[in-house]
Amino acid sequence: MSEAAKVQWFPGHMAKTRRIMASNLKLVDAVVEITDARIPFSSRNPEIKKICGSKPRLVLLNKADSADPNVTSMWIEYYKQQGVAALATDCRSGRNVNKFYPMLKELLSEQIEKWDTRGMTGRPIRMMIVGIPNVGKSSFINRLAGAKLAKVEDRPGVTRGKQWVALDEGFELLDMPGVLWPKFDDKLVGERLAFTGAVKDVILDVEYLACRLLEYLSEDYPELLTERYGISLEDLPEPMDDMQGCVKGYELLERVGKKRGFLVSGGDINTERAANTVLDEFRGGKLGRLSLEKPRGR
Questions:
Q1: Where in this chain does the record put each CP-type G domain (predicted)?
Q2: Nearest CA to 57 among 23, 83, 24?
Q3: Which pLDDT belongs to residue 2?
């Protein structure tokens, strides 16, 4: 099985996007960074802060309807303590999207006041929206714009070039392609990005991913796992720290496959099919509302 600690993912268009982002920063008043509420830490590109410098930033924890609401509240409080503006949103249901404009205006209140004193009342507020692939960035923009102005597709890297989008209430938005970073030094970050589909499945073995995900869920959300697959979580081997271990996860994967009837000739369990099912159902929100990392300890 592949090791997440060795994942490197930096296609040419992402390197180009990073340069475009830096060169266009002077054109905007604020940066809006969209993250996945299920993995707020892992889905934040660590290079964004360095690129944006002192530019005002608003962090959106998107896909909040798929995340554990208690954990999301912990993240909002964490960002508040760090002095970072943050808002939990969901582009599908529209949750808290109506709070986006007021929050951004509050973030830029001092700048807006300066414009007013200079006779620039009504000047458009320009923002750059950034985020790694598959955090729902294009869907969020479409929700704001009220029309499908940004191309939406459930695969990494589909938004290729920068584009300006005119919004309501005097806002203009510069959409940027999703940007990942050169290497995931933290194996957990690489795994969590793969769980959510931010990294293509061809990068990591799907059975390995499913095993790691099942191990995590069995510890933090055992009731959701039992409810969805009707499997027993008793008499499981202990999880192993070794990247190649996944003994507990593989046992769970086999139980899922057996329960779903994923059998091949000879009665063996088709664990690859079971793995794809687990990952697809997690990404589709069918396992329930859950989060894969908390502010501390992650």
A1: 17-182
A2: 83
A3: 43
Domain ranges (residues) in the chain: 13-174, 205-284
**Is 178 marked as a binding-site residue?**
yes
Query: Under CATH, what is the fold of the domain 205-284?
Result: Conserved Hypothetical Protein Ylqf; Chain: A; domain 2 (1.10.1580)
- pLDDT tens column, 237-295: 776 554 445 789 999 999 999 999 999 988 899 999 999 999 999 998 999 999 999 99
Share of the chain above pLDDT 90, in %: 50
The structure tokens listed for 77 are 């409080």
Beta bridge partners of 174: 128, 164
Is there a contact between 124 and 172 (Cβ–Cβ < 8 Å)?
A: yes
**With contact defined as beta carbons under 8 Å apart, do 17 and 176 qualify?**
yes
CATH number for the 13-174 domain, one of 3.40.50.300, 3.30.230.10, 3.90.1150.10, 3.40.50.800?
3.40.50.300
User: Is a pLDDT exceeding 70 seen at residue 164?
Assistant: yes
For the segment 80-104, the average pLDDT, to the nearest whole number, is: 93
**Residue 232 annotated as binding site:** no
Q: Do the annotations mark residue 65 as ligand-binding?
A: yes
Distance CA 48, CA 151 (A): 23
Is there a binding annotation on residue 245?
no
CA distance to 73, 84, 128, 177, per residue, from 79 (Å): 10, 5, 20, 25
80 marked as binding residue: no
pLDDT tens for 44-56 read: 877 777 788 889 9
The pair of structure tokens assigned to 255 is: 């139980």
User: Does the annotation flag 131 for ligand binding?
Assistant: no
Neighbours of 12 (CB within 10 A): 7
